[in-house]
Design goal:
Helix 1 packs antiparallel against helix 2. Helix content is 79%, strand content 0%. The protein has 2 helices and no strands. The longest helix has 33 residues. It is mostly helical.
Length: 70
Amino acid sequence: MWVGFFLNLGIFQLFDGIVDHKLLRLHQIRCGVDVTPYDWAWNIAGLVLLLIGVGPAARAARRNRAGSAR
């Protein structure tokens, strides 16, 4: 359950940071200042969340493949 939570949260945050903030410029966190540090922090946090979910998901997939190969 937690794996899916972190995977989805990371995907959402990266999508929001890259597509909504940068490409479409739908909403910005701060106005009137350089938003680059905020964008980097947001996207790095999204990447960390995604990686937190990818690690256990990859281990579970390997474990399932090894179990079914017997």
